[in-house]
What we know:
Elements: E1 2-7, E2 27-28, E3 31-32, H1 33-43, E4 47-52, H2 56-62, E5 69-72, H3 81-87, E6 96-100, E7 103-105, H4 107-115, E8 120-125, E9 135-139, E10 142-147, E11 157-165, H5 170-182, H6 191-195, E12 204-207, E13 213-215, H7 219-237
Parallel strand pairs: 1-4, 1-6, 4-5, 8-12
Antiparallel strand pairs: 2-3, 6-11, 7-13, 8-11, 9-10, 9-11
Amino acid sequence: MKAIVLAAGRGTRISRSIEEIPKCVLSINGVSLIRRTILMLLDRGIEPVLCVGYRHEAIRKELADLDVTYYYNPFFNVTNSIASFWFARHELTDDTIIMNGDVYIEQEILDMVIETTKECALLVDQSRTTVGDYFLQLENGLVKKYGKELPIKERTCEYVGVGKIKASFLEEFKTRLERLIGDQQHQLWWENVLYSLTEDKSIQTIDVEGRFWAEIDYFDDYERILVHEKNLSTLGAL
């Protein structure tokens, strides 16, 4: 199994608060977020593939001693994650986890993704429908509607920023990815490949069931992670 981690973007909403460094290298208990993620993947025998762009040298430095395959998106300033993903498309040869590099999850959540038998699934949090970044509407666990501006009454969960595609679905996924890139849809997120298939394909979901997670879009998100880690340390000391 492989994991494609997307970490090419600048993160304009938080960049000024963190001195223009990639947000995935922010420290959590002395370990950068990206290193923490890669170590979790390696611990489960998953081959990490990392798509980089903005200040990629800082990310490579964090992971210099780890076995990671890199793909560089030189157009990170004018494209979105679908373009970064396209550079790594040849890595789609086996069951693949896809995740955004600014996502913090616990090992327990990662294991849920690893162990799922669903052909194509996105990780969601059904406990969050009001405050968040990107929302979905589910029907019997399948994605029906999606968007940052999805009306509150239509939301049933927040998207966590992690997905998984089984090998049996890869050809269909790659075909649609190539079509969108061929149509110059470089401003889309990688998830739009899946969203564009919802009329013909069942895009399933995995609910984190209230477990803690965070995607670092704003400095407040980073502070939430630090508080969570502090609470874990306090509990561990009891």
